[in-house]
Amino acid sequence: MRWATAPAGAARRRPARSAEYISDPMLLIPAHAKVNLCLAVRGRRPDGFHDIDSVAATIDWHDLVGIRLSPAEATTVRLRVGGDGGVLPATDDNLAARAAAAIAAVAGPLQIDLWLDKRIPSEAGLGGGSADAAAVLRGCASLLDRGEFGAERAAALARTSLHDLGASLGSDVPMLIRGGTQRMRGRGERLDAVAAPSLHLTVAIAGAGNTAAAYAAVENFDLEDTTRVDTVSAALESGQVPADDVLGSGLEVAACRANPLLDERLLALRAAVTEARWHLTGSGGAAFALAENAAHAAELAGAASAAGFPARACRTVSG
């Protein structure tokens, strides 16, 4: 396995479109962020992870991922990175590169060229790295399914579950492969679709989150049953907007214990923009607030940004 990184300046910003082939030829596909509308931590598992119960939804804030495949005698993953979300290395710590390597391990040796236009902030609880990995898995599968790289490769991949490949990379990846609004159980890999209306919301960056540190700080009194998640799921299924009282992350208290600065920043955001209820998503440090419509979401984003919290008006999107 060989890894290579091109300078960030080599990444060319292209217009965001759903998915298309461009002249390289390269498949372009958006990698949508997610918000955990509601998350309950259920308990520690024997494998060291925690069982969760969550309703999460993909939103129209996304990275852009370009993928090009070429036959090869040995697998090489080459990565061009750049954009608003920061530059990432093409190493086995990079989820997009690991996703490409996982595809090649199943389908046979390939040269895989990846181009990432990073727009989703890192350490925000928005699943940016997992979204990139999900896009790489879906994009590579789409390219191989066309049969241009041989029927054997396509057949080998057809016998493999993208869901399982995603779960081997990260707990959020299966949800982001599927997209839309999903109820997540287990580590996050057990999914049930939730028929939900599109929601307007504002996402603000309160600080930097650390998933591992947040879960490590979980105490028994942070655990909860499924009542809040059941309520959110039922409201969405009936076409209603869930009440603020049942939204938010059951990881917030633990995340703030692990990172007092995040606690301070959340308090400051809530004090600065009082026209809405702000909820941490996942382990943070992004927070979201429901909005009545697109104009209201933009108004909240402007207020949060003016107070020193970079923010964006968003809406939930289907898979």
Commentary on this structure:
The structure is a single chain. The protein is of the alpha+beta class and 319 residues long. The chain has two domains: 185 residues, Ribosomal Protein S5, domain 2 (2-Layer Sandwich); 120 residues, Alpha-Beta Plaits (2-Layer Sandwich). It has ten helices and 13 strands. The strands form two sheets. Strands 1, 2, 3, 4, 5, 6, 7, 8 and 10 form a nine-stranded mixed sheet that branches. Strands 11-12-9-13 form a four-stranded antiparallel sheet. A hairpin with a 3-residue loop joins strand 7 and strand 8. Helix 1 packs parallel to helix 2 and helix 2 packs antiparallel against helix 4. The longest helix has 18 residues. The two termini are 32 Å apart.
What are its keywords?
disordered N terminus, nucleotide-binding, Alpha-Beta Plaits, alpha+beta, 9-stranded mixed beta sheet, 319 residues, 4-stranded antiparallel beta sheet, EC 2.7.1.148, Ribosomal Protein S5, domain 2
Question: Brief description of this entry?
Answer:
This protein is α+β, with helices and mostly antiparallel strands and 319 residues long. The protein has helices spanning 95-107, 128-145, 151-158, 162-169, 173-178, 211-216, 227-237, 252-258, 260-272, 294-306; strands spanning 2-6, 20-22, 26-44, 50-71, 76-83, 110-118, 181-186, 190-193, 200-205, 248-249, 279-280, 286-291, 311-315.
How many whole angstroms does the radius of gyration measure?
Answer: 19 Å
Number of helices: 10
The helix fraction, in percent, is 25-40%
Q: Let me know the number of strands.
A: 13
Structural class: alpha+beta
Number of structural domains: 2
CATH-defined topology of the largest domain: Ribosomal Protein S5, domain 2
Average pLDDT score? 88
Ranges where pLDDT stays below 50 over 5 or more residues in a row are 3-23, 85-89
Beta percentage is 25-35%
Task: Report the CATH C-level class of the largest domain.
Answer: Alpha Beta
